[in-house]
């Protein structure tokens, strides 16, 4: 199979979908890999390293899309890329369709095959291609939140861990999954007073067992959320429903109950956000203020630490990419239910129910394309 790796063109997206080591593994399996010139530079990988691994370098993004049977990316295609995607071309990347209808319609019109990292799902309901970036984003949520609590950046002016004789900041984390757990670890390690909320009682029991003493667990419901938001300094939205739009756990009217300078970090922004007043921002312009509450809603947080993120992502995606390349997408998805669940759009048809329901668009069974 011919695999193409274009350079990411989303604002301040420095990750690349494949490391030189990953390219070498695909080449060893008999495939051809084309990488756009400087695609890996933001992550610390020179063109020469890809060439040394056996890949070929192409100067433009148009040439990569034109030659490839499978495109490997990090973030969803943006508008400039829509016309480049060809009929029957396999695009393997994060899509987050349910949060953006124009992308969904553009991919339907392209008649390509869209296999989304974020809906590849194991039998235990875990999301193996979302986990590494969720780990990065969860840890970064506290790192960024701590920074934006500083007064010059319009935060409350509170040090996350406090100092002797002064109470630490209070951190509220909505969601006890991968993002929330990693956020809690970092916040606790920095000395904050942490509360993590979830609707899953067994999960809360587990977190209560493994987290340090400065992390408390609390059942998530509207009453409890409203009770806590007025006393917490940093609130992290970390809720995910696979492939679907995130629910709004914090509504606009709740902002008035928060103290001026409270910081909201919505890690779920690329799935629509679990904070109603959330809207996607960029690393170039990451924050905005509504009702004296600071919102940090960068949709590609791991892009700020591309070396770590690219290595973590390739570690997770490469085994699946090899299956797709070795067998072709139809056979690979028929034989591997995890990959099958990653199929969102096939040749002009939506095949992932949550995506169709998000925009009241028709959807069909993925099995129609695999039999």
TrEMBL record:
Lineage in the entry?
A: Bacteria, Pseudomonadati, Bacteroidota, Cytophagia, Cytophagales
Annotated residues for binding of NAD(+)? 134, 198, 203, 220, 239-240, 267-270, 298-301
For this UniProt entry, what's an example GO CC term?
Answer: plasma membrane
Q: Which PANTHER family match?
A: ALANINE DEHYDROGENASE
The text of the family note is: Belongs to the AlaDH/PNT family.
Give residue ranges for domain Alanine dehydrogenase/pyridine nucleotide transhydrogenase N-terminal: 4-137
Recorded source organism is: Fulvivirga sediminis
Q: Which reaction does it catalyse?
A: L-alanine + NAD(+) + H2O = pyruvate + NH4(+) + NADH + H(+)
Does the record bear Ion transport in its keywords? no
Q: What is the name of this protein?
A: Alanine dehydrogenase
The Alanine dehydrogenase/pyridine nucleotide transhydrogenase NAD(H)-binding domain covers 149-297
